[in-house]
Design goal:
Layout: H1 2-22, E1 32-37, E2 53-59, E3 67-72, H2 86-89, H3 96-99, E4 117-123, H4 136-147, E5 151-155, H5 167-179, H6 182-188, E6 190-200, H7 202-212, H8 218-221, E7 228-232, H9 250-260, H10 269-273, E8 287-292, H11 299-311, E9 316-322, H12 333-346
Parallel strand pairs: 1-9, 4-5, 4-6, 6-7, 7-8, 8-9
Antiparallel strand pairs: 2-3, 3-5
Helix pairs in contact: 5-7
């Protein structure tokens, strides 16, 4: 039975792959599918970044991990390189100070979209349990996006098992709300109507979760919303479905459970809650999904997520990368430029 099931999954994957190649579109506004081969060099790591200032360790909350870096394009005004004061940027979660600068409520502030530049908020990977914004590859991606004209916010967040779900997701939402504050938009010259999110691996999961739940946020109700999402190798189904023969390894299953704060999948409501595939709506922003064909997060997770997005008429650019490259390891020169082209289309 198990062998027959594997054969069925293989046939389905083959059909999807053939469909992907056949349905490549030259129309940049339409859905797009492609299968590519990546070079082994992470392109953003191979470059030198002249004139890209990085504002480090800006707090957006009270916890030491609730901080971010801001990578600024070379044409940024000098005033944008100053680190905001803790009083203006942070506060206890849920307090007035944590909602808006100066203690004012964010909802009481007039909506500000007067900035001129697009922005991207980056979420690092690490199985929800390790890694940080200072990892060399993520720092390089932050600088690369800034070199392409995007004000880029590279965030940290609380990690499992010390802080299981939904702590990390709550932190990413808090960081995005900080990006949408009028003072942040003004300081970094960001247009509130041109903000996207980017994540790799566990960060891809968190970025996707932000997007599928964006319509429930206060910021969305106020008119501020995610306009584009880049998800590289993000786990999108953390339920018992991922434990089948075609799913993730036993070691990664344990990591998922630690993140979910559960001891078993059969009694873990958080598993569905933390799985983007089950929360897509017609309000979800357009996605760029990159996923390797033989990496440790199975390809079917992104394929089924893309299908769920398309079932709700959400545009998807889906790129299957031949081989085992995981997350931002997919970012050779061609893939990096694909990501930038997608962000430019959606954040224009």
């Amino acid at each position: 039975m198990r062998s027959g099931r594997r054969t069925l999954y293989a046939l389905v994957a083959a059909v999807v792959a053939l469909g992907a190649v056949a349905s490549c579109s030259a129309d940049p506004a339409a859905d797009e599918n492609a299968t590519v081969t990546a070079d082994p060099v992470i392109y953003p790591l191979s470059l030198r970044y002249h004139g890209i200032d990085v504002v480090r360790d800006v707090p957006y909350g009270a916890d030491r991990l609730q901080q971010l870096d801001v990578c600024l394009p070379a044409d940024s005004a000098p005033r944008t390189t100053a680190t905001p004061s803790v009083a203006a940027s942070a506060g206890a979660p849920g307090s007035a100070a944590s909602s808006a600068p100066g203690g004012a409520s964010a909802s009481a502030s007039p909506r500000a979209a007067a900035g001129t530049r697009p922005a991207v908020m980056m979420v690092h990977g690490g199985s929800w349990s390790h890694g940080d914004k200072d990892t060399a590859a993520y720092r390089a991606v932050c600088q690369y996006l800034a070199s392409e004209g995007f004000v880029t916010f590279n965030i940290d967040y609380r990690l499992a098992p010390t802080d299981p779900f939904p702590a990390g997701l709550d932190d990413t939402r808090r960081a995005l709300d900080w990006v949408f504050r009028p003072s942040t938009l003004e300081t970094y010259d960001v247009d509130a109507d041109r903000v996207g999110v980017f994540g790799g691996s566990a960060g891809g999961n968190l970025a996707a979760m932000l997007a599928v739940e964006d319509h429930e946020s206060t910021a969305y109700a106020d008119g501020d919303r995610i306009r584009a999402v880049v998800d590289l190798s993000g786990p999108t189904d953390l339920t018992a479905r991922s434990t089948r023969a075609d799913g993730v390894s036993a070691a990664f299953q344990r990591r998922q459970l630690l993140y979910l704060g559960c001891t078993a999948y059969d009694a873990c409501p958080a598993a569905t809650r933390a799985s983007p595939t089950y929360h897509v709506t017609a309000d979800t922003a357009p996605f760029f999904i990159g996923h390797s064909t033989q990496e440790f997060i199975p390809l079917w997770e992104s394929q089924e997520f893309a299908a769920a997005l398309r079932a709700h008429d959400v545009p998807v650019t889906f790129v299957a990368v031949r081989g085992t490259a995981h997350s931002i390891a997919q970012l050779d020169e061609a893939m990096s430029k694909r990501v930038v082209a997608f962000l430019r289309r959606q954040l224009r």
